[in-house]
Amino acid sequence: MKLAEHHRNQREQWEIRQLDHDLLQQRHSERERERELKEQAEHRLLHADEQEDYDLQSACRAPIASLDCMEEFSAGSALSALGERGSDGVITKEQLLLSGLTHSAPGNPYQLSRQTSLTPGLRYRNLGKSGLRVSNIGLGTWPIFGPGVTEEQAEQIVSLAMDSGINVFDLSEAHSGTRAEVELGRILIRKGWKRSSFVVNTKIYWSTRSEERGLSRKHIIESVKASLGRLQLAYIDVVIVHKADPMCPMEEIVRAMHYVISQGWAMYWGTARWSPVEIMEAYTNSRQFNCITPIVEQAEYHMFCREKTELYIPELYNKIGVGLMAWSPITMGLAQGKEDGGVQLFSRYSFRSKYRSFSWTEDETSANKEGFTWVKEKVQPEETRKQSEKIRELNALSERLGCTLAQLSIAWCLKNESVQCLLLGATSTDQLYDNIQSLQLIPKLNTNMVAEIERILENKPTRPPMVSTLALR
User: What is the pLDDT of residues 375-386, one digit of tens each?
Assistant: First the structure.
């Protein structure tokens, strides 16, 4: 009896120990499962945060394509990646642009460049030392809304620019009258783009022949309010004062621009075709009277007009934060596709000009001019032998690079780091597409190529030597 009872007690104790062991194993397994589930949840949360950050960056970040990854792939694999083609089986330039295919010169095979976004070479940079981000290529609307371009064509050009990542639209009453503001305003309303996705520049222009004399406070405020009405926008991003008025006190100009920005009608203001001395005077007056300072100067810049842009604008940027929007990398005659023998790439007037522009005057921009015939009249005077020889050498160099002379000129301008935005015009989507492709030439302009261009031009600007007043005694 005692022995049987002893065995029974031992068996019960063993069962209890086994039950405790199983319970501990179950608890351990549950803890392990909980830990695994927690790690999986944390991993999913971290992945979701990273994906959200990536999506946010993809939505807000400028569509920047690295110039270091211009590695070429075979055109056949790229064409097969397109998938969709037109009804006739032909792939359009717009499809090639959006898919990453590029072409350099007419007749050359299409090539694919590796890229991380829509447009290879497109960059977004701060305008001046402000926080405003602008694409390194802007759309100048003077030729778009000029005679000879229909409203439908203008809308296609603006849409292609926006789809390509260009976010700057530059307007000027001096070039196309008030039509540009009216038409662009209609396009922006029809498209329904977010207001934060584009930058509109318009100019306060005064002419000695117009009724609005000078840059008075009255003229500045009335011009801005009229532009807002034509554009149908709540505000203008950058108001540009086109040409300085020597008869108006600078204090009145800067106070009027400060008032315009304080009222919310504009975000920033800048200048166009001002001399460095005038820009510095505006900055000094703004600081003296606690007014908002200008952030940008629009200046002419191309291979034969370099002194102001390369010598004085970088100094103004470093000292007072004034940035640069360059215009006229090619003549308007060539910009319209008129590459006949009578229209040269650069105007002779530009060779003699230091600060002024060759492109237009009040007489030339009057409404009674038909088409662009006045451009030919301006640039048709026979070039000197030396200047013509330079253009021929540049043309030969562009053929070696597999591009047009216009594309080489645009890429050369963008090579200058001081140019934060280069304004380009176009009268067709094909021409705008060709201009955009100039971005892919920038990596080809290495040190040797730039030296070759400088050898041809022989006009690199240099500062005059310092003159000591003591030496004059």
Answer: 444 444 555 677
Task: Tell me, yes or no, whether 77 lies in a domain.
Answer: no
Instruction: Please check whether residue 190 lies inside any domain of the structure.
Output: yes
Residues in Cβ contact with 437 at an 8 Å cutoff, skipping those fewer than 6 apart: 102, 103, 104, 403, 407
Instruction: Tell me the C-alpha distance between 80 and 112, whole Å.
Output: 12
Question: What pLDDT digit, counting tens, does each position of 153-205 carry?
Answer: 999 999 999 999 999 999 987 776 788 999 999 999 999 999 999 999 999 97
Q: Which domain holds residue 182?
A: 125-335+416-429
For residue 427, count other CB atoms closer than 10 A to its CB: 19
Residue 80 lies in a domain: no
Nearest to 444 by CA among 419, 469, 396, 408: 408
428 CB contacts (<8 Å, ≥6 apart)? 153, 157, 337
Structure confidence by residue, pLDDT tens digits, 372-420: 444 444 444 555 677 788 999 999 999 999 999 999 999 999 999 999 9
Q: Global pTM?
A: 0.68
CA distance 6 to 12: 10
Identify the CA nearest to 121 among candidates 400, 406, 441, 426. 441
What is the amino acid identity at position 443?
P
Question: Which amino acid, residue 79?
Answer: L
Task: Please report which confidence band the pLDDT of residue 19 belongs to, taking 50, 70 and 90 as the band edges.
Answer: confident
> How many Å apart are CA 324 and CA 328, to the nearest integer?
13
Query: Domains in the chain: how many in total?
Result: 1
In degrees to the nearest 10, what's the CA dihedral of 351, 353, 358, 364? Answer: -130
306 within some domain: yes
Q: In this structure, what token pair is assigned to residue 242?
A: 């086109």
Nearest-Å Rg of the Cα atoms of the chain is: 31
Give 298 or 214, the one with higher predicted confidence.
298
Which residues lie closer than 8 Å to 432 by C-beta, 6 or more apart? 139, 157, 160, 161, 424, 426
Average pLDDT, rounded, for the chain: 77
Q: Where residue 154 sits, what CATH number does that domain have?
A: 3.20.20.100
Query: CB under 8 Å to 273, separation ≥6 — which residues?
Result: 242, 243, 244, 298, 299, 300, 355, 356, 357
Rounded distance between C-alpha atoms, residue 197 and residue 110, angstroms = 31
C-alpha dist (Å) from residue 129 to 134, 268, 316, 322, 323: 12, 12, 11, 7, 7
